[in-house]
Amino acid sequence: MKDFEVTARCGKARLGRLTTPHGVVDTPVFMPVGTQASIKGVPHDMLNCPVILSNAYYLYLKPGLEILKNFGGLHRFMNWNNSILTDSGGFQIFSLSALFKIRENGVEFRSKFDGSKHFLTPEEAVSFQFEIGSDIIMSLDRCMKYPSPRADIASAVNTTCAWAEKGLSAAKRYETGQKLFAITQGGTFPDLRRECTEKLMEHPFDGFAVGGLGVGEPLLLRQERLAENLDMLPADKPRYVMGMGPAPEIWDTVEMGADMFDCVLPTRNGRNAQAFTFSGKINLRNAKFKNDKLPIDSSCGCPACLKYSRGYIHHLFNVREMLAQTLTSLHNISFMIDLTQLIRDSIKNGTFPEEKKKFMNNWKGEN
Amino acid sequence: MKDFEVTARCGKARLGRLTTPHGVVDTPVFMPVGTQASIKGVPHDMLNCPVILSNAYYLYLKPGLEILKNFGGLHRFMNWNNSILTDSGGFQIFSLSALFKIRENGVEFRSKFDGSKHFLTPEEAVSFQFEIGSDIIMSLDRCMKYPSPRADIASAVNTTCAWAEKGLSAAKRYETGQKLFAITQGGTFPDLRRECTEKLMEHPFDGFAVGGLGVGEPLLLRQERLAENLDMLPADKPRYVMGMGPAPEIWDTVEMGADMFDCVLPTRNGRNAQAFTFSGKINLRNAKFKNDKLPIDSSCGCPACLKYSRGYIHHLFNVREMLAQTLTSLHNISFMIDLTQLIRDSIKNGTFPEEKKKFMNNWKGEN
Predict the structure, then answer these.
(1) How far apart are CA B320 and CA B313, in angstroms?
(2) Rounded to whole angstroms, what are the CA distances from B27 to A354, B47, B58, B267, B345?
(3) Where do the structural domains in chain A lie, given as residue ranges?
(4) B25-262 is a CATH 3.20.20.105 domain
(5) What is the mean pLDDT of residues B282-308?
(6) The pTM is what?
(7) How many Å lie between the alpha carbon of A291 and the closest alpha carbon of chain B?
(8) pLDDT by residue (tens digit) across A305-337?
(9) ipTM over 0.90
């Protein structure tokens, strides 16, 4: 059996199975974000999901390689037995750019915690992720803000491709079953994205991620580039759209052939009282919920919905109790997991377009 | 069967059973504090304890009587099926005194939330707790700071006794099984405490609480007054020492014949990385724990200790993840529950003095 198989299709939408050292991941899949080895506000032992995301840049600084190795890897350190995907830190080079200097053979940066100086090669970025036992490892890439001059994007594409190759040379995945993914860049320039993607596809990566989007460009432009880029990718490898989270965009992007997603929205929104339901988003701080005995979403089976009402959670936000953030974040992650289950079922049943339409009609945004 | 029975004794220490509308509470018991219908940082569905504490003053303001009644009472509102004790708000009159004015027939106060003006009689304070379905209801009392002039304490004793009688007249406990407790005051004046206690004992309260201590007086003075006051109380009624939390003081006070305790320390300390163990307190922020694979307390069976290491929780505090506070608070509450189980067993087995000595020897404070 191959480590990734597409088992059904509905249009371009794909149902797949990705096998990692920690189990099988049915795709399309949503991966909750646990940047620093914890999903913000949510005890991860309350979650039932096949893969979570963590961040090599943060883990490299704290707790660091030595401690993670001493604990027998990231899984044991945080007591998570399903799969873990680690982002390499390429996006942090972008988002915390004041702390970074790009050199030809790697990145010089200062710790966001204590200002200490570090130098990381693309080989080390990949080795670190192998060493801590990540199941799905991302190459170190170079992400640029939108808009950026074409010359800068072209240069970032060259760096990204060179670093991906160097990371590949450091990979030991054939022995361990760990996967190494490359990340495409190229901003919103179609030809640069193609150049980057084709170069990366010359190498035996286990999967490909579309990166460098969702950095400020207009939604329609993003969707065009996403669709084109996903079309270029090999049919027999998993496709990961990085940092994409709003439910409607997940439907759109699955329709273009994407398999994997991650986003901080479920927990970030959850901490701000915004809850996802299949009838749209609701803000639990709204006074209209104060007497509401229904759960956040009556169709949801998560612990928050099985045990607590909107009225109670409204009260918890009102009096600033931490439990408010925990319950709403937990629910929002469960919603994303249910949403991708619905998507997978609709691909299997050949009803993806109808289910998408139904979802979009019900999802009215804030209500 | 009576609603409270003492089933064993070891010296003055008592093993008891208190029956409420929501079950049986084995005493001595520690009650975790959920002031605003939530135990800070801890999903209460993770707790296994017979009774928690909430606060009528806070609940009266938010969410208020109407909403709590609409939900069918506090238990259903917060989805807690074991017993609830509600404090009346007397301590808040003391601790938030700038917002209060004492009148002969009640208290005038402003909401700490929105400054709105309220007037509460001692009858209403008790009725409110009955209406929201509290299992153990506290009379409205008048608590004074330490030190206060004798005349002020004497006046507070008079008010406390008058209010307790008025609350009793408003009680409907014989129909519902709900319990009404009176609270003794008198500061550190032995004769005033005796006067207050004897007056209150003329009336058929279901239990008695020792109040007005732990407000700044020296520990030895507190212990003397506590011992005297507990000795005055009837043998066939439960005795509750309000707001008492440090583990050594719980041993001391059980030895004086106390049955019930509550304290915010397990959650407050938990939020500040201080964890309780049977070998003393530890501060999980301490760098010496960064490579520690042991649970907080190896003898503990709480979810935090079953699943996570000191090293991981140290990391969570280090990177300011909420899960750090949740796990440590959850553990500290579990520790208090285990501690009172140990105390109950030692009373039953007649080994209280030996077990107390053993505990005290191991409990070295910070280590």
Answers:
(1) 10
(2) 60, 18, 27, 21, 11
(3) 25-262, 270-362
(4) yes
(5) 98
(6) 0.97
(7) 6
(8) 999 999 999 999 999 999 999 999 999 999 999
(9) yes
